[in-house]
Amino acid sequence: MLSRQRLFWKGKPYDLPRSDEAFLRACRDNAAYHIRHCPGYAAICRHLNFSPDQLRTMEDLAKIPVIPTLFFKRKALFSMPQWRMAMKVTSSGTSGKFSQIGFDWGSILAEAPMVVRLGLYHRLASPVPAHCVILGYKPNKANHTGVTRTMFGLTHFSPPLSRTYALNMVDGAYVPDLDSIAKALKRLESSRFPTRVIGFPSYLWFGLQRMEELGLKVSLPKGSRIILAGGWKQHYAQEVDKGTLYALVEKVLGIPRENINELFGAVEHPVFYNVCQKHHFHIPIYGRVIIRDPDTLDPLPMGQVGLINLISPLMTATPTLSVMTDDLGYLTPGADCGCGIQSPYLTILGRVGMTDIQTCAAGAAELLGGDEGFGIEGGKTQ
User: Which is nearest to 287 in space by CA: 273, 274, 268?
Assistant: First the structure.
């Protein structure tokens, strides 16, 4: 779909007004593709009386059928056979269930310039080689999680001199080794090259606390950086605010908060959201965000708290055009930030109680009659 490529190859990543027409066209094409090729998605659209030609203005994006991310954890839904996919990845599955999301080659060709352009914009990309300490999973052929793919990809924003992982596979299961990470950071203190610490904020917090227990403080070389990806998930009870985390980073590693980047995304919505200088998640041209009332699912105005609905025409292997997360958040006008980016920014408050989301996901599954209607044309889920 050329409309998708035109959108993702645009030059200014936060110029939403100039990208609106291209975004609408790409969404119309994406919805039409999934209706033609995915019987399950077509059934949802018929039930909601939705057709792609209804997308005439940006306000019409709210009409696109919204599929909860929890639904993808219950059922695999594809719009093309697996042999045509570039790859298939899964969510982390911290709740015991995980999404299966297919990536087509077109989405990868569209995703690559997005990542490069935003990496350059936020000064993540550098020609200076760096050592990488990854507070996440070491890639393994048995691991298909999207977050593992993302963290490995982030090591390429600068030429990687080395990769040290906090979670390594031992006897078929991942085992954390924070002591080795602490010692590696101490060793890298004397390197001529900077260090990039990439990973889950929870493991960064636990690792920094462990270093304090061991009496380890380091002053990593100039240009060292923290890149946080993923949330606290099963460690939500230990979550700390950003200010507390950033202060400990500066105290233990000697990295100032201006060198801390945070990323936001989901395997069901692999758009690259990166914090600005004020640590806000501004909406890039490759996606749009609608905040919905948890009770009625009606769109809410700017500033009101509700469920986060993420929209992007990136994927054609899986119908993820409009997905509903189980997170609560709100939007703020970009002008209120002060960083210079004018697109609205998203504030994520945390996860909502799952009852309503589960009901919504179960309703979609019931509509499609169990396993029938899922998967590719004329077939069931792969």
Answer: 273
